Every structure is written in structure tokens, then in C-alpha cells.
Amino acid sequence: FFFFYLPNLPSLSLAPCAHIFHPSLALPSHLPYRPPTPPIPTMPLLTFIARATDSLLLVASFVHSGSPGVDGESLDMFKSQGKNLLKTLNARSVAKCSVESGSCCFHYLIQDGIVYLTLSERSYPKRLAFLYLHEIADGFVEELSNDYGPDKWPEKISMAARPYQFIKFDKFIQKKVKEFVDPSSRSNATKLNSDLADIQSIMKKNIQEVLNRGEKLDHVSNMSSNLVAESKKFKWGAKQLSFQALLNQYGPVAAIVVFLLFVLYWKLF
Questions:
Q1: What does the alpha-carbon distance between residue 174 and residue 61 come to, in Å, rounded to a whole number?
Q2: Separation between Cα atoms, residue 245 and residue 198, nearest integer Å
Q3: Strands 96-101 and 203-206, how do they pair?
Q4: pLDDT tens digits, 107-150
Q5: Which pTM does this prediction carry?
Q6: What span, in angstroms and rounded, lies between the C-alpha atoms of 170 and 73?
Q7: E strands of the chain, at which residues?
Q8: What is the pLDDT of residue 256?
Q9: Residues 194, 88: contact at Cβ < 8 Å?
């Protein structure tokens, strides 16, 4: 056994360690508590320009997945949803609409046979989102008019054969994104105050409802196509049956007549 001698140690006090924090470091009691400022809702996270007749993408612009508050996996999901949403639209669809998807919201504008679609956070002002789309639409038409002429650019759109054929317009979109990224900026506040458009009449939908309706329409279209194909088969089968019935009815008589004509020909000539 080993024994160690320990000197008498002073007793430890369990009183609060007030000496650790100097009174001068405490917050003044007269200052009110201010909760942390919530993050400013940003937009647009993506922008699509597509032909309304067949949803061909003409321009696509995205924020970088490494940007603050932007998750790469979520952005890919929204890209897919945006492309599927475009497939449900055509020139006869509602001209303006907002489609909610989780914490974000798609906004689209259809003008001159072209669909302009963007994605923002749900808290972003809807009026400002559609002001952004209108400026994108005006800038796109202006650039096409300068490149191809004011009367010929619609033909260029209708004759476009490959996706992202007008991708150079992305420079203009990126410029507009910087202008609209902060809804609380002075320039955007001025735009909101000067805009008199009525956004209450703009339809609001849910992304799943829109995509499910598109799937149902595709199903109905496939069913109608199948019915048309089956009716053609039935029509051809009916013709074959009719011809076979005529052949059964008049075939023997025709065969006898042909045989008699052959005998007469052989006798006479």
C-alpha cells in the first residue's frame, strides 16, 4: 500500500462565478431585445423561355448551386418541375399564373406565343415577380427585333429546331436578376409603387395539381389515339368481311360465266 499526503485544500465555493463576467460587459437594461432579421426572400432562382406550341426551351438561366441558400439537389428538382410545367402549357393557357411548389413558387407569363417562367421563394412579392417577367419579355422581343427585324423574329421563333437556340439572351437575364434579387431595394420599391397592375386576378395553383392534370390529359390523348387506331382496324376488317361476303355470293356465278365464255371462245375460234 502507498500513502500520499495531501495538504489541506481550501474549500470550493459553489456560489456563481460572478467574477468571470465584468459588469461593464453586460447589455444595458434600457436597450430592447431585437430578434434576428429574417433572410431577405430572393428571386429568381431560375428562368425559362420556351415556345408555347411545343415547350421547346429557347433560353434557360439558373443561379449557381453554391449561392447562399441554394441547394443543388433542390435546384435540380425545381428544374425538372419547371420543364414538366412547361409541357402542360400552350398558347390557349391562362396568360398569367402562379404555381406553388413547397417553399417556392413558379410564376409564368405567356405573350406572343412564348412562355416566360421563373421561380422565386414563396415570400417574394408576386407583383415584383411579374414585373420581372414583363421586363424579360420586353427585352427578349427587343433583342430579337434588333437581330432579325421587327416583322421576322416570330418566324425565327417558330422555325427554331434545337433547344437553347437563343441562349445568348442569358446575359440580359443575369443583368435583370441582379436588379430584382432584393425586393427591398430602392429601385424595386419604386417599381412596386409605380406599377398599377392588378395581381389579385392572377390565378394561383399547386404544382402537383398542374402536373397531375397534365398526366391525365396525356392519358386521355393516348386513349383517343388508341381508339382512332382501333376504329381504323375495325373499318379495314369490315371492308374485308364485306368483300368476302360478295365473293361468296357472286363468286360461283362469276366462275360459271367465265367458264362458259372460255368454252364458247374455244368452240368458235
A1: 8
A2: 69
A3: parallel
A4: 999 999 999 999 998 889 898 999 999 999 999 999 999 999 99
A5: 0.64
A6: 22
A7: 46-51, 57-62, 96-101, 104-111, 114-121, 203-206
A8: 80
A9: no
